[in-house]
Amino acid sequence: MTDTDDAVAIACSLSGRDFAERMAWIADLNARALMTSRRGDLRLELDYAREALADVRQMVAQEQSCCAFLRFELSVRTDAVRLAITAPEAAREAAELVFGPFQEKTPQPAPCGCVGGCGA
Q1: Above 50 in pLDDT, residue 104?
Q2: Is residue 90 part of a domain?
Q3: What pLDDT sits at residue 1?
Q4: Helices (H) and strands (E) in the chain, counts
Q5: Where are the alpha helices (DSSP H) in the chain?
Q6: pLDDT tens digits for range 43-69
Q7: Domain region containing 83
Q8: Does residue 109 fall inside a structural domain?
């Protein structure tokens, strides 16, 4: 584990309604533009349609502010926008949970059963 791993909490700083709304926003983006996803250990690669570049950049900026423990690499290709998300070793046990929302095309219900209105 590096000093950087120690300094950054392995947690999302969003809570309640903000978290549910963000997950719904990402699911909508994915439904519109996600072409492929590949998972390899602590790395997730997502290919989006080029037309979604502005939205993908917005997602990266938003996620960097609430999930500082993740590393985001964005590259624009001729046929796609590739986003690679890497989790640190310290997040290994939570990697499936962390990466899940970035692959969803429909919002997943919160433990209370809703997808964004109750503030849970």
Answers
A1: yes
A2: yes
A3: 42
A4: 4, 4
A5: 3-7, 16-33, 53-66, 95-103
A6: 999 999 999 999 999 999 999 988 889
A7: 3-103
A8: no
